[in-house]
Every structure is written in C-alpha cells, then in structure tokens.
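During the second half of the funding period, the structural biology subgroup turned its attention to how the target accommodates small molecules. The most pressing case was CA2, which had performed well in the primary screen but for which no bound structure existed. We therefore specified the complex as follows and requested a full 3D prediction, including the ligand pose.
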Amino acid sequence: MQTILILNGPNLNLLGRREPEIYGHETLADVEARCRAVCPAGVSIDLRQSNHEGVLIDWIHEARESATAIVINPGAFTHTSIAILDALNAFEGPVIEVHVSNVHRREAFRHHSYVSGRADGVIAGFGIEGYEAATRRICTLIGAGH
Ligand code: CA2
C-alpha cells in the first residue's frame, strides 16, 4: 500500500464553514472523500489538519517513513515558514502544493510561497478540486494505477 499524506495548515479546519465566497462550501471531510475517490487500488489517503507549525513539521518528518508523497496546503504558513520548507526538503518523495483560492489575485503578501521552490507542482484557485487534481498528479508521479 502506498500512502499519500494530505496536509492542511492553520484555519483550514474552517473550510466550508466560513468565507464561502473565497473558500467554497465544502469541508475537509469532503476533500478527503473526493481524494479517496480518485485513488486507484493500492493507494491510501491520510488527510490531516493542524493549526500548529511544529505539528505540521513533525508530520512531514513522520512521512519520511510512512508516506510515498505529500499534498500540502500550508495555509498562511505558505508565506512565512522556512521551517516547513526545510522539513519538506528532508522528504524525498513528490510534493504538490495546493491553494483553494487564487493567491495571485489576492493581497501581495500571499503572492510569495516558501514551499513552491520545493514543490513538484503548484495548484491555486481551483477550489477544493485542486486537491483532487493534486492527488491524480501524485498517482501519476508514483506510477500508481491508471
Ligand atoms: O487558498 C488557500 O488555500 C490558502 O492556503 C488559505 C489560507 C491563506 O492564508 C493562504 O494565503 C491561501 C487561509 C486558510 C483559511 O481557511 C479558511 C477557510 C474557511 C474559512 C476561513 C478560513
């Protein structure tokens, strides 16, 4: 079994519950179900969310042993966290960065991402469909299914 770790940073527990005009109406549970649905046999999804930078870093370290690939929406840590970048640099598998909103159409401080320089792909502005697209791309990159 290959595992895709789908990590979500701060405030993304509110997905589908606040600011639907920016982030839509679907929740992280919907994200999980959609990503599971596009995974071929032999690939599992492990979706997690934390509001704490150190917890996200610990999960990325854990993934070195337990996951084949990472899909990450680091939330606002995208724009601030060299520590998350360093952790991702220590992970050897593919990494795809996802943003629900189109960060480039928003405030200037959302235009720079520390994670993009490490990511194998970046998706922004596709709503939660971005997670599905990222999961499909990861499956291609790890040679799973289809
Ligand atoms: O567009 C994205 O996915 C972001 O990563 C979301 C972050 C934001 O800081 C990034 O610039 C772009 C914020 C996550 C907040 O999530 C909420 C979801 C629903 C309601 C309120 C916040």
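Two results from this model are relevant to the next phase. The CA atoms of residues 24 and 57 lie 27 Å apart. The pocket of CA2 is lined by residues 11-12, 14-15, 18-19, 23, 73, 75-76, 78, 99-101, 103, 110 (CB under 6 Å).
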